[in-house]
């Protein structure tokens, strides 16, 4: 089957579909072939605007992925209205940056609530439906930082490593049940996530954004195209940016191989993205 026809006639639920990668995924799927899209986001206005722009059969729903009840309502509602759930893309996520000692535990909880618990709820509740149906595809959006270290973003990286572990384990567990399971691991994509991120300590968020996005990052539409192709092929791990294959390959061959680069990046971060407000403390 041609990748562009993979989503044809399917019921596809996407979280975090009001912005960035989730919005681009919905646009790509609708351009490829009409699918019954259920678009969830905590930002009701943004996701409604996206659904309106796409037109029927896309529909918007409000969801807070940190709430089991909210995710259950979204999934049960989609199945009740549309009769089945073919694909769920657990994409909603938030970012954070800064040195470990500066994170409040509340910062950790927020990151794990959205990035990990959001995926745990979405995966488990969708999987139960899919087991009853006997088919389905669960797609969880992690990050390259879920495959390799991401210094100065330890909480984010920890949440994404957990998503990779959950998803790759379930892929093997679900195989005999006929359920497909994939994890998406993008590098840097030019989305508003950098404006919304929590920066702890003396980190200058604007400098992080400028430094991270200053090297021609991939556009969300291009990323969505790569991701949709990976889903259609039922890839276990979907890498997005061309250079990511090299980084992941080097790290798998020898975790030490990337240490000089990561230590340089930590030093660069301290020198360029942190103000000296606490000097002398
Ligand atoms: N942009 C990147 O460079 C990049 C790289 C690797 C991984 N990712 C991952 O891709 C996913 C999408 O990120 P993006 O870059 O498109 O970010 P984004 O900020 O553009 O979009 C994220 C969306 O998630 C929604 N959201 C946040 N908290 C939510 C909650 N509690 N419940 C429901 N929705 C919620 C936001 O309202 C927003 O619409 C995230 O999981 C992110 O970690 C992004």
Structure explained in plain terms:
- With 281 residues, the protein is an alpha/beta fold.
- It has a single domain, classed as NAD(P)-binding Rossmann-like Domain (Rossmann fold, 3-Layer(aba) Sandwich).
- 50% of the residues lie in helices and 14% in strands.
- It has ten helices and nine strands.
- It has helices at 20-32, 44-54, 68-82, 105-133, 154-175, 193-196, 205-213, 220-232, 244-253, 259-273; strands at 11-15, 36-41, 59-62, 87-90, 96-97, 136-141, 179-185, 198-199, 237-239.
- Helix 5 links the parallel strand 6 and strand 7 (179-185).
- Helix 1 (20-32) crosses helix 8.
- The termini are far apart.
- The mean pLDDT is 96.
- The site of nicotinamide-adenine-dinucleotide has 30 residues, from helix 1 and helix 6.
- Nicotinamide-adenine-dinucleotide binds at residues 15-16, 18-22, 41-43, 46, 63-66, 91-95, 114, 141, 143, 186, 188-189, 191-193, 196.
Compact description:
Helix content is 50%, strand content 14%. By secondary structure, the chain is an alpha/beta fold.
CATH class bucket = Alpha Beta
Quickly count the domains: 1
Distance between the termini: 62 Å
Task: Tell me, rounded to a whole number, the average pLDDT.
Answer: 96
Write down how many β-strands occur, each being a DSSP E stretch of 2 or more residues.
Answer: 9
Q: Which class do the helix and strand fractions yield?
A: alpha/beta
The shape, in one word, is globular
Element order: H for helix, E for strand? EHEHEHEEHEHEHEHHEHH
Quaternary organisation of the protein chains: single chain
Q: List the strand order in the largest sheet.
A: 3-2-1-4-6-7-9
At the fold tier of CATH, the topology name is Rossmann fold
The residue ranges in which pLDDT falls below 50 over 5 or more consecutive positions are none
Number of helices: 10
Biggest beta-sheet profile: 7 strands, parallel
Rg over alpha carbons: 19 Å
Helix proportion of residues, in percent?
A: 40-55%
């Amino acid at each position: 089957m041609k990748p562009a026809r993979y989503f044809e006639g399917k019921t596809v639920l996407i979280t975090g579909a009001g912005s960035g990668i989730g919005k681009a995924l919905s646009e790509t799927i609708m351009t490829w072939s009409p699918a019954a899209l259920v678009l969830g986001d905590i930002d009701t206005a943004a996701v409604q605007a996206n659904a309106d722009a796409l037109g029927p059969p896309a529909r918007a729903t409000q969801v807070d992925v940190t709430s089991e009840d909210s995710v259950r309502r979204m999934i049960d509602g989609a199945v009740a209205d549309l009769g089945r759930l073919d694909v769920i893309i657990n994409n909603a996520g938030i970012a954070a940056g800064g040195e470990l000692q500066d994170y409040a535990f509340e910062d950790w909880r927020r990151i794990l609530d959205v990035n990990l618990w959001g995926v745990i709820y979405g995966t488990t509740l969708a999987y139960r439906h899919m087991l009853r149906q006997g088919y389905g595809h669960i797609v969880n959006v992690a990050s390259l930082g879920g495959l390799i270290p991401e210094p100065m973003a330890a909480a984010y990286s920890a949440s994404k490593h957990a998503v990779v572990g959950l998803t790759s384990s379930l892929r093997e567990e679900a195989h005999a049940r006929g359920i497909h399971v994939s994890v998406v691991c993008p590098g840097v994509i030019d989305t508003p996530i950098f404006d919304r991120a929590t920066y702890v300590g003396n980190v200058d968020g604007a400098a992080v954004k400028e430094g991270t996005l200053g090297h021609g990052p991939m556009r969300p539409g291009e990323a969505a195209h790569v991701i949709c192709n990976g889903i259609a092929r039922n890839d276990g791990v979907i890498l997005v940016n061309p250079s990511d294959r090299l980084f992941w390959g080097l790290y798998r061959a020898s975790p030490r191989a990337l240490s000089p680069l990561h230590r340089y990046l930590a030093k660069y971060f301290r020198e360029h993205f942190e103000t000296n407000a606490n000097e002398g403390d």
